[in-house]
Write a structure and sequence with these properties.
The protein is built from four helices and 14 strands. By secondary structure, it is α+β, with helices and mostly antiparallel strands. The chain has a four-stranded mixed beta sheet with strand order 11-12-1-13, with no helix packed on it. The protein has a four-stranded antiparallel beta sheet with strand order 6-3-2-14. It has a four-stranded antiparallel beta sheet with strand order 7-8-9-10, with no helix packed on it. The protein binds FE2/S2 (inorganic) cluster.
Length: 238
């Protein structure tokens, strides 16, 4: 096979793979959205090893845009595929966790209720190990993502489905690939109810101060993963 044939066969292979991802591998209404392939790195630009992540610990990176935060979690237990619906009743099949024990998951950290999100100064939304202890709003289970703004609760082991509170749809999933040889993680797209347009509309001024003109730019190549407690000065636990 000469070079041209090789390139053409690769292109064909990539095309059929894309068709599979966009079609038969997912439920009828599901439309995973492909964004740039982005390697997850540490603050020095080195690829993070998935096995180095602490279980049940909040990590944050930004994807698919410079100002849109994502939670990365090693749940410490397998997260299996789950059927879900967006608030406009589009069905989709969340593929579950990745990695050797399928415990690695990622979800947009923008609350599906009123778009609360973690900033460097403050976060009302985060994963809580065990049960939250707020007597006003009892936890709907263990190991959930809680939004303290109005007490929506999401289960990250089941595609971030809503277990309590006013949110009308799961957190939008970020699709990950795990390279078993290199033990690296790559974000490839999203699945579920995206709220990025609403987010940019609601916080236009704030985001331009926080992230400058790059706020709406797509992340390219790499995205830095940080523990929430390093990224954010005041992570509120309700
Ligand atoms: S903004 Fe998160 S529950 Fe209202």
């Amino acid at each position: 096979m000469d070079r041209r044939e090789f390139v053409e066969s690769c292109a064909l292979g990539a095309g059929s793979l894309a068709a599979t991802v966009a079609g038969s591998a997912w439920a009828a209404n599901a439309k995973p959205r492909a964004y740039a392939r982005v390697l997850l790195t540490d603050a020095f630009g080195q690829a993070i090893k998935a096995s180095s992540l602490l279980a049940q610990t909040n990590y944050v990176f930004h994807y698919p845009f410079e100002a849109t935060p994502v939670f990365l979690l090693d749940l410490g237990k397998p997260a299996l595929a789950t059927s879900l619906r967006t608030r406009d009743q589009q069905a989709y099949q969340w593929p579950g966790g990745v990695g050797p024990t399928r415990s690695l998951v990622a979800f947009s950290a923008i609350c599906a209720h009123k778009l609360v999100y973690p900033t460097k100064d403050l976060s009302f939304i985060s994963f809580r190990k065990g049960a939250a202890s707020n007597p006003q709003t009892p936890s709907k289970g263990n190991d959930l993502i809680h939004c303290c703004a109005d007490h929506s609760q999401y289960d990250p082991a089941r595609g971030a489905r809503v277990l309590g509170g006013p949110a009308e749809q799961p957190l939008c999933a970020v699709l990950l690939e795990h390279d078993p040889k290199a033990d690296t993680l790559t974000a490839t797209g999203t699945l579920g109810g995206e709220l990025f347009d609403d987010f940019f509309k609601k916080y236009e001024m704030k985001l331009s101060l926080e992230a400058g003109p790059r706020a709406k730019q797509a992340v390219v190549g790499r995205s830095v993963v940080r523990e929430l407690d390093s990224f954010c000065r005041n992570a509120v636990r309700c």
